[in-house]
Amino acid sequence: MASTGEALTLERDVRRAIELLDSLQKTGDVPPQKLQALQKVLQSDFCNAIREVYEHVYETVDLTGSPEIRANATAKATVAAFAASEGHAHPRVVELPKTEEGLGFNVMGGKEQNSPIYISRVIPSGVADRHGGLKRGDQLLSVNGVSVEGENHEKAVELLKAATGTVKLVVRYTPKVLEEMEARFEKMRNNRRGRRPMEC
């Protein structure tokens, strides 16, 4: 993981911007509708999702150079993550503690199966279930800053097994795609069964 130097303060900065908009509204210098619309955007779940993903990318991106270079690279990676999720839920960051019992979920899919990698099961009473935030149908985008998009199933499993301490996952909820993938696998299993010689 790259050293970030000074910690990001985006959450604090957004709060401060909302406070400033409040103060500006009281002056009457700017039409209140415009200020309220901007406040609504800053307080939205979407803005919060962008901030979370940006912070995660910023903390994990391995770049040397000025803060401006790092910020530009982080912004581009964040925009790419949201562009890739068009038509789906937006990416979000889930943090789980790695314990002796593991992380408490199963994954399926991968490049070799011509599909993304998905959370196929959250184990009842396991780590992921107890901490919340992770759902069956979540597509796994990265593990501790390492992308698993377009990767083999085995790579995702290795990253998850090798992770220690707090594990940061970037995921997005796309249950319909998981359902389609499971239906495809079920059809393949049934076709294989259909080719077996029948017993008489």
What secondary-structure arrangement, pairings included, does this model have?
Elements: H1 10-27, H2 32-42, H3 45-60, H4 67-84, E1 92-97, E2 105-110, E3 115-122, H5 127-131, E4 138-143, E5 146-147, H6 153-162, E6 166-173, H7 175-194
Antiparallel strand pairs: 1-6, 2-3, 4-5, 4-6
Helix pairs in contact: 1-2, 3-4
| Sheet with most strands: strand arrangement | 1-6-4-5
| Major beta-sheet overview | 4 strands, antiparallel
Q: Which regions have little confidence, pLDDT < 50, spanning 5+ residues?
A: 195-200
Instruction: Categorize the overall geometry.
Output: elongated
- Bin the strand percentage: 15-25%
The chain-level mean pLDDT equals 79
The strand count comes to 6
**What's the SSE pattern?**
HHHHEEEHEEHEH
Terminal CA distance = 61 Å
Q: Which structural class best describes the helix and strand composition?
A: alpha+beta
Rg (C-alpha, Å) = 21 Å
The percent range for helix content is 40-55%
Number of helices: 7
